Amino acid sequence: MAKNPEIAKTFLESLHEKASKKAQTEFKKLCCDLPESVELTILRQAPLQKLGTQQDDRGKINAWDLNYVKNQFKKKHFNIDAQKIAEYFPAEKTIKKLLTIYGTFLNLKFEVSEIQNLWHEDTTLITVYNKSNNKLLGYLIVDMHPRKNKYGHACQMTIVPAIKEQGPCLAIVVANFPKSTATKPSLLQLKDVETFFHELGHALHAILGRTAIASFSGTHVKTDFVEIPSQMLEEWLSDKTILKKISSHYQTGEPLDDTTIENILKLKQFDSGDFLQRQCYLSILALEYFAPGADKNPKELRAHLINKMRPQIAYDENDNMYASFGHLSGYGAKYYSYMWSKVYALDMFSKIKEYGLLNPEIGQRYVDEVLAKGGSVDPNILIKNFLERKPSQQAFLQDLGIE
After folding, report:
1. Residue in 87, 199, 234, 235 annotated catalytic
2. DSSP state string for 173-229
3. What is the pTM of this model?
4. Class of the CATH-defined domain 1-78+269-403
5. pLDDT in tens, 40-93
6. CATH classification of 90-258, choosing from 3.40.50.300, 3.90.226.10, 3.40.390.10, 3.55.40.20?
7. Is residue 87 annotated as a catalytic residue, yes or no?
């Protein structure tokens, strides 16, 4: 979609500039309330101390402390306990409710059943039908739980592509959610629910993207477009009504209370400046590594960019993170596509929200105009046709609380 590296870089630099003001504000808040065990690095030979508003140029936070500091701040100021919230998302019930939401919005019917003689007994079969005419569209195999030597992240894979005038397609979703025990069902943290929403979004793109040529079907699209459908569907979890519908305490059956939901939604913007700043840094790092020129020093490039783009984070010359930056071997220069896709995803989500998140009319239009075309039409055209206007960054920035 971006067409060339210069457009991608300009896009990232613009987002970085908008994110950095909020990131600095977030950093000051964290530094005014550091845990006792955390100290900032010394800069300019200044006295080592927790930063106040007049001392924000005297220290940086060590990368290994950042998540700990954020988590402690969240516990103190948002009163959110991820483990307690997980009690409201027992896996089996939650997934059934998620499928109901997808079914309503996308005009689909799902049948969940056991399946025999596959690679593991934990697999589940979901058969997908068009609700209007009961036509079989495809099969989805879900492999939910961790085990030895299994792929450790989450992903979607197309096995049999969706082709017009052909039989049903087949997709797989792999995840690693906790397994039920004798005393407690499998409980999903909110990030797990989001992951399932995301990967199921890819799977439904694969099933509903029925084209004449297999190499254009489903998720066979431009790399900086492929995350849009899945990222957009994650946004259903930012809606209070949807969170009420899908949450159900595994013991009492009660949904999440209003206060907890409000805190969850506030938390979405808590460190959005830092998040976006980091994503822009990683994206430009990938672009620079793959830019023309054979003789590059990856350590020097990283040091330059992290000091320039992440000024509140202390650079450690012993950290060779680029050696474990897995997307460099998969996405190459195109790590930017996550943020590129997110901007379009939020724009499309804002359009759908105008009609209602469970409105099958806009859902069917989304299927027809976007998903069903697969990669057979330029995604810039698909998005413009669906939005009925030029795309905008407004919804994305508003969602993150960035001016």
Report:
1. 199
2. EE--PPPP-SSS--B--HHHHHHHHHHHHHHHHHHH--BSSGGGSTT-S-TTTTTHH
3. 0.89
4. mainly alpha
5. 886 543 334 443 333 345 589 999 999 999 989 988 888 888 899 999 999 999
6. 3.40.390.10
7. no
